[in-house]
Amino acid sequence: MIDIKLIRQDPDFVKDALKKRGEDTDIIDKILEIDNEWRSVITNLNELRAKRNEISKNVAKLKKERKSSEANVLIEEGKRIGEEIKLLEEKERELQSKLNDLLLRIPNIPHESVPVGSDESQNVEVRRWGEPRRFDFAPLAHWDLGPAWGLMDFDRASKLSGSRFTVMYGKLARLERALINFMLDVHTKEHGYTEVWVPHLVRRETITITGQLPKFEEELYLTEKDDLFLIPTAEVPLVALHSGEILEEKDLPKKYVAYTPCYRREAGSYGKDVRGMIRQHQFDKVELVWVTTPERSFDDLEQLVRDAETILQRLGLPYRVVSLCTGDLGFASAKTYDIEVWLPSYNAYKEISSCSNVTDFQARRGNMRYRRRSDGKLELVHTLNGSGIAVGRTLVAILENYQQPDGSVKVPEALVPYTGFEVIP
Fold first, then answer.
1. For residue 266, what are the CA distances in angstroms to 178, 188, 300?
2. By residue range, what is the domain housing residue 196?
3. Which of 254, 316, 319, 345 is surrounded by the most beta carbons within 10 Å?
4. Is 232 within the bounds of a domain?
């Protein structure tokens, strides 16, 4: 959520930011209209409450002077004012609710360093690592390799749950688990993250903090009986850990890592992405979250990206880093880097991690503040998040990049201690 003070003080700046994102700016005018009405109601309420208080004092004084008739007149006036106050209080609550709902639907303001563009075609490549492998044979896609071994089963997954689910057996199931443990070990032992085990079902208030609600409810899985949402990413519970809290600056940044399955409805058609394991309704991910200060958050974003890159480098997987343009930014993000791994089946780089600084956007929703060491002033924290990394897509990248002419796949050296085997199948 952006600060309404910014909308009041510089609506043209906010509108310009929305235009860069390709968003409708009419919502800003609606907010200002409701906000003006709300402020007028608040002014009237304060005046009426002050008048009622003055009447109460005068009534007490008149009763003390035994001027009952005059006191009764004031009492009746006080009752009339009380009824006016009740109506205005109801109006104030109604306007505040409308205002909050509109504010929750406005995306974050892009940082000045974000390239301006309308869609992903205008994202800017920052760097590359590694060279895509040149095969001297026709490489297979993962959706052909896995089923050929009898270790990846889309048909039975469909029988169990419908489309966009996967069953894996034996060495592939173990490879998935090995990747999770490898990523967690690197981030906790080498990068200084604290591992967290979090719930996979969260309350409506929790998932509103990170920006999925109210705008993207259709993309989420909801258990209607309990009004609990299956998490689309561990970012949701990790960011909300400190909602409503005041942290000390000396304790920042806080760096959390969590492995969870993630659940997304992924409504819509994604062409070739619906094949195999690239775009699933359930997938594993290791997530990184920072809670930090405004002064250092963009430097921290650079470090978070490097932490995620480390995983791909250790696995020897070619990738590139791109800076997303304004039109491709996520709803809550002020700046995002995508890390894209090379996939032979696409003959292209595909996203495997998205690392974002959402500034104080989530902190304002969750009332997450810190006490400055210098003057004791309370300020909103900044939150960062990034995949560290998507486990299923990493498994896919290994299968496709490490395949051999005989149809087998070599396991990256860094993973052998975790798998206990060097070749699949």
1. 26, 31, 30
2. 120-424
3. 319
4. yes
